[in-house]
Amino acid sequence: MNIVKKYNQRAEKINSLLCVGLDPDFSKLSEKFKALEFPQFEFTKYIIDSTHEFAAAYKPNIAFYEARGDQGLKELKLTMEYLQKNFSDIFTICDAKRADIGNTNNGYIASIFDWLGFDAITLHPYFGSEALGPFLDRSDKVCIILCRSSNPGAAEVQDLKTDGRPVWQVIAEKTSKEWNKNGNCMLMVGATYPEEMKVVRSLAGDMTLLVPGIGAQGGDIKATVEAGLNSKKLGMIINSSRGIIFAENPGEEAKKLRDEINKYR
Ligand code: OMP
């Protein structure tokens, strides 16, 4: 099965484009979790148990685990084992924003695709497709190429013009026309830039977009969904991390966001 289909099947089965971001910032965990042997794992397990009905994808951000050294990596591994054992049809994205020269990329592949077992990884395009080759060649995994980031300073580099077009448009076009030979690429576009998302959608055909920036970063759901849907009313993985995981009731918050997204589909 093409791995992008895993996401589409899950999204269709539960009628949801929602991705729950697992960003277990240790300083924000309650004392109840901090007192346990594996606080980040127990916290994410609680989030997964509360939200899985509404989650088409989970996106752990590896930074929050790496911040705790070998203990954090162990807890990320426990989280992945828990997902693989109990919810193997939910698409998993490692938000790691990796990419280096080709042979170094093999180390990231061994760790993130093979040891941790993620379905997808976020990648910088800065080194070009020759260096991204080892990732792109893994037709059993998804490469999510950073295109237009959600942060306020995104324009500084991404709006630089080449041949009259901003860099993010070149990335969208190259990813969809040249780098997607194995049908395993997606693009990352922030929800805080719906106008740019419309352009990416027009350049990238039906390619799936990972869309962070809803919730804590204030992205507008209606504008985002209307800008990003593909011709099949799919093609988006809409992420919220803090807005769901640190809410009073994460399950309710996930359901609310799933429903709000569906209202505009
Ligand atoms: P919240 O703002 O708490 O919903 O978290 C957003 C998550 O998406 C974080 O893990 C970010 O690192 C990630 N993210 C962005 O916020 N902006 C981007 O442009 C790209 C990402 C990402 O690749 O997911």
Q: Largest beta sheet, briefly?
A: 8 strands, parallel, barrel
Order of helices and strands: HEHHEHHEHEHEHEEHEHEHEHH
The third-level CATH topology is TIM Barrel
Radius of gyration, taken over Cα atoms and rounded to an integer in Å: 17 Å
- Considering DSSP H and I runs of 4 or more, what fraction of the residues is helical? 40-55%
Walkthrough of the structure:
By secondary structure, the protein is α/β, with parallel strands linked by helices. It has one domain (3-263): TIM Barrel (Alpha-Beta Barrel). 49% of the residues lie in helices and 17% in strands. The chain has an eight-stranded parallel barrel with strand order 1-2-3-4-5-8-9-10, surrounded by eight helices. The chain has a two-stranded antiparallel ribbon with strand order 6-7. A hairpin with a 2-residue loop joins strand 6 (161-162) and strand 7. Helix 3 runs parallel beside helix 5 (69-86) and helix 9 (167-179) packs parallel to helix 10 (194-204). It is globular and about 55 Å long. The relative contact order is 0.15. It binds orotidine-5'-monophosphate. Orotidine-5'-monophosphate is lined by residues 21, 23, 61, 95, 122, 149-150, 188, 190, 212-213, 215-217, 239-243. Orotidine-5'-monophosphate binds next to strand 10 and helix 12.
Summarize the structure.
49% of the residues lie in helices and 17% in strands. The chain is an alpha/beta fold.
